[in-house]
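tool=predict chain=A
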Amino acid sequence: YGKNTIKFLRLHREGKKHFVKEVEVCAHLRLTSPQEYLEGNNSLVIPTDTIKNIVLVLAKKNGIPSLEQFAIDICNHFMTTFCQVAYVKTYVQEVPWQRLHEDGVPHIHSFICVPDGIRFCEAEQCRNGPLIVFAGIKDLKLMKTTQSGFEGFYKNEHTTLPERHDRILCGELFCKWSYGECKDFDFDCIWKKIRECILEAFAGPPDCGEYSPSYQKTVNCIQMLVLSRVSQVQVIEVVLNNTFYNVVDMKNLGLTNDKEVLVPVEAPYGSCACTLGRKKFFEA
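tool=predict ok
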């Protein structure tokens, strides 16, 4: 049981310069005894309102040095404070505020919300067990208008999809990775590096791009690039929910539409998912 959607803004001041972190937290506990379920005995139950207040107090006292560290702080607090807690899991996601710039000069106290992907993390721990940390990015919308196709696929009497060697590749990406056991990582630096890998693998070189023969291959390229460059990542999951565009037929309007006006296909939409990890992690 636990408390969901604990939302708050943490404001930190350094002189005239302000820093913000707006987050949403979910904190779930499992107790050593199920007596509240079986017997209606609530003597071990930590009220969800207390859970919420603990999260807010930790934000006040510790700040949010990184999402991952804040999730770790929450787990550590429940494990060290309450002997009846057998397991704790914390989820934290961030509202994407970015500092405003004017003529290249950063503003000291103004911010803009930029929807370029939502950062999140999870931390979980069993009593006498290791602290496990996950991190990720979701709702990251990506598009490239060429260098994508889909050809040579299996066909039978139910196949109506034509082969395409030049199409728009567009989708909403979810990516989650595991660090394995928690160590003293620079979580902010790693997250930014993985985001850069995602964008590079999706788009390819800026002057020419990179051809994608399928959404599946693009998903794998993202995973392989992250695993090759970020040694701290043990397992990475990527889900790419696809958005398809159809070219508008303008013949009746006396116009030739050379893929200049397209409309999105709202539903149904495709989805590609894959989990990839290092061999040593799966053997362990």
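Helices lie at 35-38, 48-62, 67-81, 187-203, 215-229, 279-283. The chain has a mean pLDDT of 95.
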